[in-house]
Amino acid sequence: MTNLATNLAATAARVPDKVGIKLDQVELSWSALHRAAAAVAGQLRAAGLEPGDRVSLILPNVPAYPVAFYGTLLAGGIVVPMNPLLKAGEIDYFFSDSGAKIAFVWPDFVGEATKGAANAGTTIIECGPMGPVEGSLVGGDPIAEPHERADDDTAIILYTSGTTGRPKGAELTHSNINLN
Question: Which of 40, 42, 113, 154 is in Cβ range 3.0-4.6 Å of 171 for a Cys bridge?
Answer without folding.
Answer: 154
